[in-house]
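Chain A, query sequence.
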Amino acid sequence: MTWPMDENQFKTLIHLTPDQRYRFCIQKMLETGELWSLNQEQLWAMGEDPAGRQFIPIWPHPGLADRCRQKNWQDYEPRAIDLAAWKERWIPGIHDAQKFISVFPVPSGGAVMVSPERMRRDLDAQANLGNQ
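Chain A, predicted structure.
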């Protein structure tokens, strides 16, 4: 479930380092059981970094995704993805397509680019820490 986020929290979050935003995103995904990306008529937002790696962007909150609706993504809308579906279908699909995941990009640029395998490991590791 999405948590309330005010403008001050938004400003604080976008000024975290990419690694801090990555850890925050993993934690919130596990807490809320969802993540967010951008969607337009059944098409999910995709991007390509300067190294030519194709990726799907994700965020822990729809308001954060909404702020990144620029350029090629301006006609897209935030859409939730259930965490269980993400782990069961999306991560294997992203792996099979040889794409990456851009975690919590911000309007000024910068995000952690991870492989689907790393995201699965990090989600599992954080979930195990939470169960102790």
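Residues 21-30+54-132 form one domain. The chain is about 45% helix and 20% strand.
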